[in-house]
Predict the 3D structure of the following.
Amino acid sequence: MAVLSHALTVERVSKHYGPVRAVDDVSLRIGRGAFVTLLGPSGSGKTTILMAIAGFVAPTSGRILLDDVPITPLPPEKRNFGMVFQGYALFPHMTVAENVMFPLRVRKVARAEAERRVTEALALVQLAHLADRLPKQLSGGQQQRVALARALVFEPSLLLLDEPLSALDKKLRAELQVELKDLHRRVGLTFIYVTHDQEEALSMSDRIAILRDGRLVQEGAPGVLYERPATRFVADFLGKSNFLKGRVEAVRGDGFAYAAGPARFVQHGAPDGLAAGAPVLVALRPEKIDVLAAPPPDAALNTVAGTIAAWSYFGSAFSLLVDTPVGRLQATVPAWRCPIEPAEGRSVHLAWSAEASVRVLAD
Amino acid sequence: MAEAPVAPAPRLLGASLPWWLLILPALVLMLVFYAYPLAEVLWISVTEPEPGLGNYERLFTSASVQRVWMTTLRICVITTVITLLCGYVVAYAIASAPPRLQRWMFLLVLLPLWISVLVRAFAWVTLLRRQGLVNEALIGLGLIDEPLRLIWNEFGIAVGMVHYMIPYAVLPLYASMRDIDPRLVPAARGLGASRFEAFRRVFLPLTRPGIIAATVLVFIFSLGFYVTPAILGGGRTMMIAEYIKLQILDLIRWGLGTMMASTLLIAILLLLALVSRLVDIRRVFGQG
């Protein structure tokens, strides 16, 4: 299934429903062959954007371009995009093969050719042996694969996926994430994926666009978004974060020092526009905090002492909630090398380097 | 009104004595006032005026009997087709309306059911007769010179019957449309089907159970219709039910009348048997 991949540009698209701005001035460029995820909580406008790309929602303003051709006025059936709906939307009165054949039949592809391509598409998702079943006779994961085969069989310009894994249990989801990513690599199409699940987004995407209240908050590679979230919302939504609120005490060339409550910490990173006395917000990932029995010898580290308020065991890790003078902090420690025995009320020292945390904008 | 369908067969096995006691009064009522008269009708049809199948022979020999049957079938087919088309559009409009509006639309569809069939038939008379609202309006607008013959013929009967039958078509059709996943039609369009193709290949086939149910319901109801054809047909166009009444009450020809009644009953049973081979009849009539 060699296909030509396409780029998609969303140019200042807005969608208003009465006074509600479901999508508010979103611009996005999706590269050829990329796996791009639109990530956001429910009501963030991610599905509306996908529906606008698919042609089911007409934007109030703005344009959508495939490569350089505006497609905004085209009806969905003229766009030639594959789409996997939430809940799959398989046709219940057609067999698996007939479902996959559907896009070819409406395109009047010759019978023999169509049958060959259906076989090929079903082989691609490893379902050739279930071709004559009805959708209701399949498991959720199999239905999901049929929906994928149906969306790919007509060699679409793009594949749009609307929370395709949300109905499946956790383990199956993890398997299908790997499969989807592998499928993306094999077919080489541009995939646009919508989800509210940050793990899905991180594990599969080349790029993630984070949306909130109809606006694009931040867009970038998963690693960049995780390591350098721009705002408090991104840091909190993508993974977990502790937040330290403080006031700048001194600015250096490559960082700054700040006071958070009675403690004083240093933060690495360009102190753009910061001056002494300015309020700052710093995000700190739980897994980047070292938990120690005694204060660390390295004076360059940020440290704070506290007592364990609660802890839980996850097999691979311990998660500790530690009450400190700067508030309650969460720290995650790999279970096999946890230097202390977790117990409620036990006093511990938390330490992190100036590079481990990141300054974010409050929002 | 239409001929009532046959009594459902009671489940004899697996029911306990208290259950039988509970059901007994209804059973006795049914046997005395329903099964017995029905058997009597069947009996008369083969005994009056003389024992034998002479009455049934008329189905093949009497031109007037055949004419009544042909008229009935023709009107029923026309009524069913028009009712189905109108009912489908109405059901589709309701199914795709927002829930708040749906309740009002349902009220409007069901409202006619609360008005006596007699009142509705006479209402159509006032609208369709020579000096009725429709003819007066058309003449007033200069569209026609002579009043159209809108009543005392098959046209008038069909209008009245379609009006009466529409709710019976809308309800099963709506039920089958409501069960369709609203994402299926968008999915079909996203896969390249035009609006029409998506309707024809996805929506329409999925409403098939509703279409069959509505067709059976409307057609069988129409077969035994009495009041509306009697009033809007004005005695000139005669359907079976009116013919039976004429034979028994006016001409006192019990044998012929009961023969027609029995034939009607048998025809309906055969029709139901035929349909039940095609679809699950219990689902068609709203159970399950």
Q: What stands out?
A: Residues 96 and 146 of chain A are 7 Å apart (CA to CA). The radius of gyration of chain A is 25 Å. The longest strand of chain A covers residues 302-313.
